[in-house]
Amino acid sequence: MVLNGPNLNLLGTREPAIYGSDTLDDIAGRLEDEALALGVAVDMRQSNHEGHLIDWLHEARADAARAVILNAGAFTHTSIALYDAIKAVELPVIEVHLSNPHAREPFRRRSYIAPVAKGVIAGLGVEGYSLALRAAATL
Ligand code: CA2
């Protein structure tokens, strides 16, 4: 399962210097193709609501998803609820960011996801999603 958090529905429409010019649909299409080649299935979702992301993590567990790729957006830096949910579901979660939060404002340096993530990929743009998918397929 590939989960995207708040404001990522705006990808490709604003701030291309930071987030690139691909839309979330472009990324989903690319992951679908790559998943086919890897022999795995992807289910990509986006929500601006923290609770939806938590419900989907529970759903991933209930539906026996094998891994979660998570770009939690700004909830990365604030959400103890996501930290708890990731711990609870006991699935490998790969944290992905398009930009490199460590090279931006200081408040982006804290991640509540990283301590419970299997791995973290940041700063490589949409390529980060592809790398995470490859890692997930291998894991
Ligand atoms: O770099 C990333 O992928 C982030 O998760 C993106 C979040 C940001 O809060 C994190 O620190 C790093 C923000 C997503 C906002 O997405 C937009 C896309 C286009 C235009 C405006 C916002």
Show the helix and strand layout.
Layout: E1 2-4, H1 16-19, H2 24-38, E2 44-46, H3 50-62, E3 68-71, H4 80-89, E4 93-97, E5 119-122, H5 127-138
Parallel strand pairs: 1-2, 1-3, 3-4, 4-5
The protein binds ligand CA2.
Residues 7-8, 10-11, 14-15, 19, 71, 73-74, 76, 97-99, 101, 108 line the site of ligand CA2.
For the terminal residues, how far apart are their CA atoms? 14 Å
Helix content: 25-40%
Instruction: Give a short account of the largest sheet.
Output: 5 strands, parallel
Strand order of the largest sheet: 2-1-3-4-5
Our estimate of the beta-strand percent is 5-15%
Distinct small-molecule ligands in the complex: ligand CA2
Total number of β-strand segments? 5
**Continuous helix count:** 5
- In round numbers, the mean pLDDT is 97
Report the radius of gyration as a whole number of Å. 14 Å
The parts where pLDDT drops under 50 for at least 5 residues are: none
**What class do helices, strands and sheet pairing give?**
alpha/beta
What pattern of helices and strands is seen along the backbone? Answer: EHHEHEHEEH
Shape: globular
In short:
The protein is an alpha/beta fold and about 140 residues long. The protein has helices at about 15-20, 25-40, 50-60, 80-90, 125-139; strands at about 1-5, 45, 70, 95, 120.
What does this structure look like?
With 139 residues, this protein is α/β, with parallel strands linked by helices. The chain contains 5 helices and 5 strands, in the order E-H-H-E-H-E-H-E-E-H. The chain has helices at 16-19, 24-38, 50-62, 80-89, 127-138, and strands spanning 2-4, 44-46, 68-71, 93-97, 119-122. A 5-stranded parallel sheet has the order 2-1-3-4-5, with helices on both faces. The two termini are 14 Å apart. Bound molecules: ligand CA2.
